[in-house]
Specification:
The protein is α/β, with parallel strands linked by helices. The chain is 41% helix and 18% strand. A hairpin with a 7-residue loop joins strand 9 and strand 10. The radius of gyration is 20 Å and the shape is globular.
């Protein structure tokens, strides 16, 4: 039995569709999905509809699903800030049926596939807690790489060497029962199989928004449980068009209603690395500097911070001028 493990789609329906087609061409027997199906690309409904159409797929919730569910029942007349524009747009765009679907997804699935215990959650914290491997989340990797790109082989070698030698990680791993542990959230593709082959940790990366400083396409991973007692891993990077993704975002309704966020996503696509975390740190510092206590950030503060953070090149949007990525 082979399973396509997919995570962090973030509304990128064209890439999700390409990944599903590629996986089907590789004769997978099923799909395991690890959360964050909406927000950042402009096709949340289409992504959820595709996921719902997959027969027998195992699907867990991510933090973005929780964020959207938290908006249910709120007074939408209060949705006037700048920071949450993309969440408001996404919620208003999605059908009630799809909002209900993502709101009822489990946070964790524990099952057995072809005799192997398999555990699924959106974040590795569900299994590993605040373990030292967080050195390799997207923000840490971006700081580690600077403006440089690395190959998948280089990234895998660096992460594996660190995990193999880190005592805190090894102690935490030793306490886990044998089996497969699947998670996403960090947008960094990696896997770690213990030397005895009895425990596998796997992050398939983000097919919708890869942030692992690698220029090799959209990631997902195939989990191979075909042979009794054997756990196989095949990491895939599917070539996709960066230009088409950027054009699609800029021509979307999302771009009209959440232009700052959309431009940051475009910058992440171009750089293949974390940007939002760093912008949020910047806007918090900026808001404190101008003595603005309002949270979520107002439109004025949100857009002014983006102009400063993003550099001197400026373009015009409703409500103020912001820089183009």
């Amino acid at each position: 039995m082979k399973y396509a493990v997919i995570s962090d789609i973030h509304g990128n329906e064209p890439v999700l569709r390409a990944v599903l087609e590629d996986a089907q061409n590789r004769k997978v027997d099923g799909f395991l999905l690890l959360g964050d199906y909406c927000l950042s690309h402009p096709f949340p409904n289409e992504c959820v509809e595709l996921i719902r159409s997959l027969p027998g797929a195992l699907v867990v919730s991510g933090n973005e699903e929780g964020r959207l569910s938290a908006l249910c029942g709120q007074d939408q007349s209060t949705w006037t800030d700048g920071q949450m524009q993309v969440s408001y747009w996404c919620y208003r765009t999605m059908t009630p049926e799809n909002i209900n679907y993502i709101g009822h997804l489990p946070g964790r699935i524990d099952t057995v596939l072809n005799g192997v215990p398999v555990h699924m959650a959106h974040s590795s914290a569900e299994f590993l807690g605040d373990c030292a491997h967080h050195q390799w989340d997207a923000a840490s990797l971006a700081l580690h790489c600077g403006e440089s790109f690395i190959s998948s082989d280089q990234r895998k070698e660096k992460i594996h060497r660190y995990l193999s030698s880190n005592e805190a990680f090894q102690r935490t791993l030793a306490a886990l029962p044998d089996g497969v542990y699947l998670f996403g959230h960090s947008h960094v593709q990696w896997s770690y199989l213990t030397p005895d082959g009895k425990k596998l940790l796997m992050n398939p990366g983000s097919c919708g928004l890869p942030l692992d400083c690698t220029l090799e396409g959209a990631p997902y991973t195939i989990l191979d449980l075909s042979e009794p007692g054997h756990i196989g891993v095949e990491e895939i990077r599917l070539p996709v068009s960066l230009e088409k993704q950027i054009q699609t975002i800029r021509e979307s309704d999302q771009y009209i209603h959440a232009q700052v966020w959309s431009e940051i996503i475009i910058k992440e696509l171009k750089k293949c690395r974390e940007q939002i975390v760093f912008f949020l740190q910047f806007v918090e510092s900026y808001a404190n500097q101008i003595s603005d206590p309002v949270r979520p950030y107002s439109v004025k503060t949100w857009e002014a911070a983006f102009r400063l953070w993003n550099g001197p090149q400026a373009g015009s949007i409703p409500g103020g001028n912001i820089a183009k990525a």
